[in-house]
Amino acid sequence: ARAQIGVTGLAVMGRNLARNFARHGYTVAVHNRSYAKTESLIADAGHEGDFVASESMADFVASLERPRKVVVMVKAGAATDAVIDELVPLLEEGDIVVDAGNAHFPDTIRREEALRAKGLHFVGTGVSGGEEGALNGPSIMPGGTRESYASLGPILEDISAKVDGTPCCTYVGPDGAGHFVKMVHNGIEYADMQLIAEAYDLLKQGLGASAAEIGQIFADWNTGDLESFLIEITADVLQHVDAATGSAFVDIVLDQAEQKGTGRWTVQNGLDLGVPITGIAEATFARALSGSVPQRAAGRAALPADAGTWEITDRDAFIEDVRLALYASKVVAYSQGFDQIAAASAEYGWDVDRGAMARIWRGGCIIRARFLNRITEAYERDAELPLLLADEYFTGAVANGLAAWRRVVAQAALNGVPAPAFSSSLAYYDGVRAERLPAALIQAQRDFFGAHTYRRTDREGTFHTEWSGDRAEQEA
Ligand code: NBP
Fold first, then answer.
1. pLDDT-derived band at 1, boundaries 50, 70, 90
2. Are 45 and 17 a contacting pair, CB within 8 Å?
3. Which of 37, 112, 157, 189 is catalytic?
4. Which residues form the 6-phosphogluconate dehydrogenase C-terminal domain (predicted)?
């Protein structure tokens, strides 16, 4: 037994993670259900480091130093359970099983409990950054016990992305916390992508600009507050020309967005916890609308094009308005996502450090961005910050763009351009800062038809009005 870490599941992600470990000087045990992938890894990358290849799971486990550290990188769901079932009888007390796939956090809670009962550590770990990140340094979000992190953490930190010398990996919290945070990361990614897509559409329709021209605008934006991986690749994609037709690449791609499900999980959990993650929800529904083919055909045929026509006199001012609206909407989407982490942390007893999450997302992952530093700083000022938007930096940043944000949302509505994430973010902003909400009327209605009771602004207690009788009020 000489390998310090093992990886089972050698499709794109596992293969690249194994190479990343090896390139950092670790002896890596490698295994895959079908041996061909193991052989191909050794043939292609065997020279990059010290690999111990095994055809059987038993040999793979035997090749690991104790306490064994086994990274499982297979398709999330039933495959993960199948691999765990095969592994567990071969392991001994104190060994660590790391699930680095995209598991749904309730599954991770279940698996952690089952393995803990057998004296094993189960570390549900979010890994972001796609295949490129897995090879060159991903953002890593490990859950599980602090005890397991003591020996596993330094290895994961070693292979993670680094920003200013700081690893993009830290202990997240017990059982499902790591996979939960990865799920919210993906939800925020959905919101960020949708906001960028809406900004592109507004520039396209408002200015009649070409994809390449808009690509140049995004490239300019990437030198300021919006600097991020997603803005950078957007500029790149928009400037790409399709070889077959000579058209802008984006113009030949079918406009039906797909999803693998992490956005849906995030929204479902937002509903479960009662956290208004409207940006993520709108982004998920926008993908669903894009894929609603018969509905779109019926809508195009039957719904009149009544909208106005754009009249933009100052091109540069409009571009700056869209940039400010994008930044403000993005702040809202992130604020909502961090709210969801806080709510889940309280609900499931995880004690997640939100500032640390922003820190480990600065590199390696899809939502890496300059602006995450601002989030870390906000939670350094106040670790219990109830609303990220209310931090002094973000209030300033949003106030600076507020008039522009309102103009952009209004123009989108007047000109019939769907901007669900821009407009719902603005509605959230106005809702969360409102002195008084019409929720008072909702409560009155609920008491009227269902005797659901209400509280009063002027005294303590719960009350019900006899709506069908004399309308006297009783204390409930
Ligand atoms: P896939 O998600 O495509 O899974 C393929 C791997 O799962 C192969 O090694 C396959 O073995 C193995 N596998 C399956 Br399928 N069923 C199995 C079973 N019953 N028993 C044992 N092994 C089984 O691979 P991936 O794209 O590398 O992703 C791996 C994980 O990483 C997933 O959970 C994914 O959600 C997550 N993730 C992916 C990305 C990304 O950018 N792709 C990013 C972040 C996280 P075989 O070779 O024998 O068929």
1. confident
2. no
3. 189
4. 178-468
Mutation test residue for ligand 1: of 32, 34, 57, 74, the one with most atoms within 8 Å of CB: 74
pLDDT of residue 341: 98
Name the residue at shortest CA distance from atom 2 of ligand 1: 75
Measure the N-to-C terminal CA separation of the chain; round to a whole number of Å.
69
Q: Is 189 among the catalytic positions?
A: yes
Q: State the pLDDT at residue 306.
A: 83
Q: Tell me which residue of 259, 304, 309, 306 sits closest to 284, measured CA to CA.
A: 259
Cis peptide before 67 (omega within 30 of 0): yes
CA of 158 to the centre of ligand 1 (A): 23
What is the rounded distance in angstroms from the CA atom of residue 30 to the CA atom of residue 19?
A: 10
Q: Is 261 in the pocket of ligand 1 (CB under 6 A)?
A: no
Residue 305, pLDDT score: 85
Predicted local distance difference test score (pLDDT) of residue 439: 98
Q: 0.90 cut: is pTM over it?
A: yes
Q: Is the CB of 288 under 6 A from ligand 1?
A: no
Q: Which of 19, 30, 33 to mutate to test the pocket of ligand 1 (most atoms within 8 A of CB)?
A: 33
Give how far Cα 57 sits from Cα of 8, 60, 88, 250, 451, Å: 9, 5, 11, 45, 61
113 is catalytic: no
Residue indicated by tokens 């400037």: 239
Which residue's alpha carbon is at the smallest distance from atom 15 of ligand 1?
A: 75
Q: Among the options 69, 182, 204, 330, which is catalytic? A: 182
What's the rounded Cα separation, in Å, for the pair 211 and 209?
Answer: 7
Residue 57 CB less than 6 A away from ligand 1: no
Instruction: Check pocket membership of 32 for ligand 1, CB cut-off 6 A.
Output: yes
Contacts of 168 (CB under 8 A, 6+ apart): 137, 138, 139, 140, 160, 161, 162, 359, 360, 361, 362, 363, 364, 365
pLDDT band at 246 (very low <50, low <70, confident <90, very high): very high
Q: Is the CB of 126 under 6 A from ligand 1?
A: no
Q: What is the ipTM metric for this complex?
A: 0.98
Please tell me the predicted confidence (pLDDT) of residue 156. 98
pLDDT in tens, 43-73: 999 999 999 999 999 999 999 999 999 999 9
Asked if the model's pLDDT at residue 308 lies above 90, the reply is no
Instruction: Give residue-wise pLDDT tens across range 105-126.
Output: 999 999 999 999 999 999 999 9
